[in-house]
Amino acid sequence: MSDDIKHEPSTLTFNPLDPEEFRRQGYKVIDFLTEYYKSIEKYPVRSQVEPGYLQKRLPKLAPDDPESIETILKDIHNHIIPGISHWQSPNHYAYYPCSTSIAGVLGETLAAGISVVGFNWISSPAATELESIVMDWLANMLNLPKSFTFSEGQGGGGVMMGTTCEALIAIITTARDRVLNQIGCDNINKLVIYGSDQTHSSCFKSAKIAGISPNNFRSVKTTRAHAFALQPEALRAAIHSDVKKGLIPLFLCANVGTTSTSAVDPIAKLGEVAKEYNMWVHVDAAYAGNICICPEFRHVINGIESMDSFSFNAHKWFLAALDCCCVWVKDSSVLTRTLSMNPEYLKNKATESQQVVDYKDWQIALSRRFRSLKMWLVVRSYGINYLRSFLRGHVDMAAYFEEMVVMDRRFEIVVPRNFALVCFRLFPVAVISRHQKFLEEESLNELNAELLESINSAGRIYMTHTLVEGIFVLRFAVGSTLTQPHHVSYAWREIQDHTDRILARKIQSWGC
Ligand SMILES: Cc1ncc(COP(=O)(O)O)c(C=O)c1O
């Protein structure tokens, strides 16, 4: 040490990354999770706690001194697990799945362990290069046109983000700038965003963040008669009406697998309409995009070649664990023109060479997770064939459930099933004919809401609902990694039991 430096720091005795301690605690955590998966079916699927339950159980202040992993894991078991709705339970049929796997969890662990922040190529070349390779692999598995891949070398390619909402913010902002660069920023209030009334709320939220006036969001009406798919003529009419008012059609979010009912918009035809107005078309296939790796389902994205961007959530149904939204664009230069920032502290020779991808310029945030490591593990660990059979297995189980619903004449299927989501409701015709009361939609809705709450509060299975054309719909989404056919039979028996009890109570209360 040089003579004129007076201060000599003392060696840190605290090492929060001590390798042997990492191994010891790591095994404890894996053991904990192993036991969790083995006993997951004994927990109520939907958490049964009351709001504020945890405040009452945990200390008001953080500890001054270290606590052992054993103590912390015990508290997770005693206090956190009761407040968990068990998404990985085989009896979880709520929302859409958030499937995980050994490869998904260990991929997350590896990424967290290696812990890099690959915002540009030089900050971790493998993180960037692996992401581009895996995105091309996935594009190939989905049979996306080559124009969406890096391998074609024409500016197309893919990026991994956290969520669809993040993807839509990046994409709508890009589409906005593409137009404003031509017509001037003063015209931002003329830009219009289109989707159907089934489009996920994240599209309009993203448009709001991108500065598009909420008066200019068009949720074009869909109907049960068309299985809630956006009709090209309805889109055209909405666009015409806006153009007549001097507004400028900017962006269409086309849906492949809507959140409520898995409706599939006819994207090729919608694309033709949108292209007449030079609009950007994004295909949101957050859920159903996963199953497009199966050739027999790939037709739902026929026409993708004329779209500008496409995304699906691999954390929904691809064994990937939260989070990973895979997004492809045909022309990355428009994306990077909007999202690129080059402050001095990030400048480097690789970027200047223009031979590398700097993913910070493809997304909203600067820092980013090493998601491709996880996706690489998932695809390699299971292979395309196993992934396909996993997804097909869920569709089969959903078809089996649907058959049981159809056979019970107290129920009806509300919209035809496309994938592994069954949309149904209690529609007890025999009871209706005797009790005028149930003829009203509102009463039927109340009955179905009561049935759902009765099922979910019992905790043996968990489903959620939606409302379409004023109909309260029960959603049964098969997709949990651990679900097997006997779980589906069990779920159906559970639904029937609750139905028997509720209908018996109703009939008794009417005195017949
Ligand atoms: C069709 C569709 N789009 C978008 C989203 C929103 O996804 P994220 O939470 O990744 O933003 C969902 C969520 O379920 C969805 O089903």
UniProtKB/TrEMBL annotation:
Residue ranges annotated as transmembrane are none
PROSITE patterns assigned to the protein according to its UniProt record, in alphabetical order: DDC_GAD_HDC_YDC
Keyword line: Decarboxylase, Lyase, Pyridoxal phosphate
Q: Which domain of life is it from?
A: Eukaryota
Which molecular function GO terms apply here? carboxy-lyase activity; pyridoxal phosphate binding
What Gene3D superfamilies does this protein map onto? Aspartate Aminotransferase, domain 1, dopa decarboxylase, N-terminal domain, Type I PLP-dependent aspartate aminotransferase-like (Major domain)
Give GO cellular component annotations, separated by semicolons.
cytoplasm
Cofactor names from the entry are: pyridoxal 5'-phosphate
Protein's GO biological process: amino acid metabolic process; carboxylic acid metabolic process
The reply on keyword ATP-binding is no
Question: What's this protein's family per the entry?
Answer: Belongs to the group II decarboxylase family.
What is the protein name given in its UniProt record?
Aromatic amino acid decarboxylase TyDC2
- Give the organism, scientific name: Lophophora williamsii
